[in-house]
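[Discussion] Sanity-checking designs against the backbone

I'm trying to build intuition for which residues belong where. Below is a structure token string of 191 positions. I'd appreciate it if someone posts a full sequence so I can compare it with mine line by line.
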């Protein structure tokens, strides 16, 4: 049996009311009746998005589920088993970043530079510095610049060469930061 479609909204409204006035009798009395159905409804929405491989959608739904569970916990309303929604959100973030990265790399191979750049930037929105996205963005903009140069679009080519250089510098900084190993007691001489 599915909960009524507005049960999640009702739970949010009761929780909001209790945030404003912890002594609000109607909300205190009604919340126990909608807590578990609201949780189940939100979980189903998250699982449906995950099954459809809509990882950005699943990420949003699992994040909303985690927030709902936190709010219900603060009111002592979680007396049922719950999934680790934060861990599931992290899984969905990784899956969304991977999908975007794969799409971007496929577009790059096809020399569809605009799509490649857009998809790799999407991967970075899910996970900062995901895989080799910064380095790949440098490659994409370099290739894009060369394509524009061959069409005598000098200004656009210059913009993409500049972006390529910016991404190369950022990628180098990221790489060097992974190599910096602190050694206790080591004094680095200043120049």
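Best answer:
Here's mine. Compare freely.
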């Amino acid at each position: 049996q599915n909960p009524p479609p507005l049960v999640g909204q009702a739970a949010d409204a009761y929780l909001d009311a209790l945030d404003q006035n912890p002594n609000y009798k109607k909300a205190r009395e009604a919340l126990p009746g909608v807590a578990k159905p609201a949780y189940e409804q939100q979980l189903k929405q998250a699982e449906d998005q995950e099954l459809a491989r809509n990882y950005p959608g699943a990420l949003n739904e699992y994040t909303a589920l985690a927030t709902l569970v936190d709010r219900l916990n603060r009111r002592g309303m979680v007396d049922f088993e719950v999934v680790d929604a934060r861990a599931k959100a992290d899984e969905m973030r990784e899956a969304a970043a991977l999908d975007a990265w794969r799409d971007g790399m496929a577009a790059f191979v096809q020399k569809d530079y605009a799509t490649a750049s857009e998809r790799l930037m999407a991967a970075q929105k899910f996970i900062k510095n995901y895989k080799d996205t910064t380095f790949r963005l440098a490659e994409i903009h370099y290739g894009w610049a060369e394509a524009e140069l061959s069409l005598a679009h000098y200004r656009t080519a210059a913009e993409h060469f500049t972006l390529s250089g910016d991404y190369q510098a950022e990628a180098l900084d990221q790489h060097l930061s992974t190599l910096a190993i602190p050694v206790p007691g080591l004094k680095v001489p200043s120049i």
